[in-house]
Amino acid sequence: MKKVIGITASADIFAAGDFPGLRRHVLNMPYGEAVLAAGAVPVILVRTDDVDAMRRQVALVDGILFSGGDDVAPSFFGEEPDAALGKVDRGRDVYEIALMRMAKAEQKPAFGICRGMQVMNVAFGGTLYQDLSRAGMECLQHRQKAAREESSHSITTVQGTWLAKNFDAPMVNSFHHQAVKSVAEGFVVNALSPDGVIEGIENREAPFMIGVQWHPEHRVREDASTMRLFRRFVEQL
Ligand code: MN
C-alpha cells in the first residue's frame, strides 16, 4: 500500500473572492505533485493547537513534509526581531514546532523544505540568521531572480551523510533570506553553498529527519537527482 505523507501549509488572507478577509490554508501545488510522483499519497495537515488532534494527525501519516513559507519568529530561538526580519506567522510556528517534536517522539520521519528545515533546526534548539546580511560573510544571491524550476547556485554535499548518498545534483535553486546559524544538537550539516551558507541538515538517529534549504519540489521534472531524493525519502518510510 502506498505511504501517506502529511504536508504542512501556509495561511493567507485573500482580499478578493466570495469571503474577503477570510484566513485560508495555502499550499503550493508542486509539494503534493512531487510526493505523488515519488509514489506516495499527499494529504494537507490543517493547523491546530489541540494536542490530541495533532497526535492523531501524526498517527495517520507515514511521514511529514514541512513546507516553505514565512520567516520563523526569532523569539522561538531566543532573539529579538532584527530590522531585516521578514513576515512571520507565530501560529504556524507554534503548530509546526510542536508537530516536529511530536514526529520525533512518535518515530515519524520528516522532510523539511526551506522554512521547513529552519523549523526543524529551531524545534530542536538550533538558531537562524534572521537575514543573510547578518551572517558576516559575502553571500551569493540566495533569493534567485531566475525561474523557480531553474538551479542558480552550486552546493557541496557532506560526505557520509544521507543526502550525499541520495542526491548528486551540483546545483540547486534558492529562495531564502534566512539560514541556519547554529545547528541543533543531534543534527549535522549535509550541504553547503560556496559562500558557507548551510544548505541542508539531517539527524543521525531514528526517526529519520532531513532538511534542505532549497526547493526541490520545483525541480522534480527538470532534475533526475531531485526526483530520486523524493523517492528515496518515501522508500525509507
Ligand atoms: Mn541558497
Describe it for me?
With 237 residues, the protein is an alpha/beta fold. It has helices at 29-37, 51-60, 90-105, 115-123, 162-166, 224-235; strands spanning 4-8, 10-13, 23-26, 41-45, 63-66, 110-113, 128-129, 153-154, 156-157, 171-172, 179-180, 187-192, 198-203, 209-212. An eight-stranded mixed β-sheet has the order 4-1-5-6-14-13-12-9, with helices on both faces. Strands 2-3 form a two-stranded antiparallel ribbon. A two-stranded antiparallel sheet has the order 7-11. The protein is globular, with a radius of gyration of 17 Å. The model has no long low-confidence stretch (mean pLDDT 96). The chain binds manganese (II) ion. Manganese (II) ion binds next to loops.
Task: Give the topology.
Elements: E1 4-8, E2 10-13, E3 23-26, H1 29-37, E4 41-45, H2 51-60, E5 63-66, H3 90-105, E6 110-113, H4 115-123, E7 128-129, E8 153-154, E9 156-157, H5 162-166, E10 171-172, E11 179-180, E12 187-192, E13 198-203, E14 209-212, H6 224-235
Parallel strand pairs: 1-4, 1-5, 5-6, 6-14
Antiparallel strand pairs: 2-3, 7-11, 8-10, 9-12, 12-13, 13-14
Helix pairs in contact: 3-4
The structure holds manganese (II) ion.
